[in-house]
Amino acid sequence: MPLSKVFISYSHKDRAWLERLQVHLKPLERDGLIERWDDTRIGTGDRWRDEIKRAITSAQVVILLISADFLASDFIEKEELLPLLDLAERRGAVILPVIIGYCLLDGPNSKLAQYQAVNSPSEPLESLNEPERNRVWVDLARDVLARLERHPAPPIVELPPAPPSPALPTGAATTPANTACVPGQGRFALLVINDKHADPIYAGMVAPLDETLGLEGVLTSEEVGGFKVTTLRNEACDAVQKAIDGFFAARQPDDIALLYYYGIAVKDAESGLEFITTDSERDDPASSIQVFELQRAMRRSKSLRQLVKTN
Asked: Which DSSP state fits 79?
């Protein structure tokens, strides 16, 4: 199971609570289940603001240690909380609030009310005795573990090269009449071809793909693949993301789901690996397909047979 990145947001005045949380998450770290990040990871000489942004962008699980000091911090509000809530809204990060002390959670802070807290706001940790506090920490660790088991990140697997096949004539059907090679099992492929770009730098980095029909012929051939194929060529980022989400959401447990991507992939210092689409803009990760968004779609899919091929 790949590491899931856990980001912890807290007020420095609540440092003692952070240290207790670190103790309870340590077994998950030691077993390689999570990669924990809080600002104690920032080393001397590091560009701390950049480190925080990087950690936020890659977070899959977010733990908020909420107190009056947490809510009063302008830095937490602007630099951590708003980006983290946006991450949850747009990319599916899990938000797990822990109520440290009595504080105002309605009015200007009502945006936090939509996320189920690990403990009741009427029973913050500061009001509990030591055994009761430990029970809350254990519940939190179990919640993190349960989410990892429920939504493991599927591996990205390279397919072996397909044998050559003659290209289909223009206008030929790309979907065979029967795509299920065995009872109860369907084979579905989504081809995402990006060989034209509005950005001149990207445009000079990729060669036109002239073998799309040949690839479709290989995949749809009953003798070779037997896939039902959908092809997107030089579509905008939003259209590609919606197609990917819908493709994996529609699959059943026994389906084979193959995503083939042709084009440019870029490693961004903050947001990680990105697949470039025809309208992608440099220095704007939101205009590209983020790998963690792809992995999110794969995690949510019912299909147990998922493959990704890049070229």
From this structure: I
